[in-house]
Amino acid sequence: xxxxxxxxxxxxxxxxxxxxxxxxxxxxxxxxxxxxxxxxxxxxxxxxxxxxxxxxxxxxxxxxxxxxxxxxxxxxxxxxxxxxxxxxxxxxxxxxxxxxxxxxxxxxxxxxxxxxxxxxxxxxxxxxxxxxxxxxxxxxxxxxxxxxxxxx
Length: 152
Hints:
By secondary structure, the chain is of the alpha+beta class.
């Protein structure tokens, strides 16, 4: 029962954030998010703390590159394994919404996932908008384990 309640609260939170900061309203401020290429590294320790079974450790451990294009498309690649995924993104000055994605690293999660973002110099920090708001563990671990460094 507790798990169902948590799931319902998570869905309601994501729905409320999506309605409050809808892609249509966020896209109007497209220039807010600093496009470019960002990198981070995910270690075995990062994945282990979530106790995820195989294939997560094998897929997630390595050097990552996230490319935010000016066209609203984000491409994410594990440079260590060559696996990649792609999806839409929308943003304003503080919120980043990932849209439906595709590719090797496709997440079977809600259509939109909300993160808060901040940039200090070349360091990009992503945090989930609320606990459990991203049910795609891989995306959550890559996005939140360490800051991203802008390389281009």
